[in-house]
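Sanity check

After download, print the first record. It should look like this:
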Amino acid sequence: MNYKIVAEAIQALLGSNNQFFLLDPTRHPHRPKNTRLGFLWEQLHKYNARIEAHDLWVPPLAHTNDRNIMDDFLAQQEQRRGTLSAVHPKDLINANACRLYLKVYTISDITTSDEKEIAAWVMDGTDQKETHLIFPHQEKPHYSAWQTW
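Expected structure tokens:
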């Protein structure tokens, strides 16, 4: 098995701009479970060990001020922890399902060409982004997932 391909598929699934081996797996409820690399990732975190692969693909940022969507959701989860507007693990799962369906990674992927507002097709999944990148298959999420999104 080519672990690099599997690692890059996990990276695409998570949608983070950071290598997943360097992340806390418990903060990613949308992570793959019951996989060899997932187990390795969890064990590395448990024992405070690291693997850094210099050639592991991560979603590219289109420009300097661009931001990664899932990294922003995780940052909001941390900021809102313990408040009434907390971001719950189910919210992350729903948001990631919408992101995968739309085939997007970054804020620039979902904004209008002038980058001043979110494109209309992004709000309810009426369209998907055309891209040369390969995404994990995702059926169109349920209405409740779009409410989170």
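If your output differs, re-run the checksum step. Summary of this record's structure: The radius of gyration is 16 Å.
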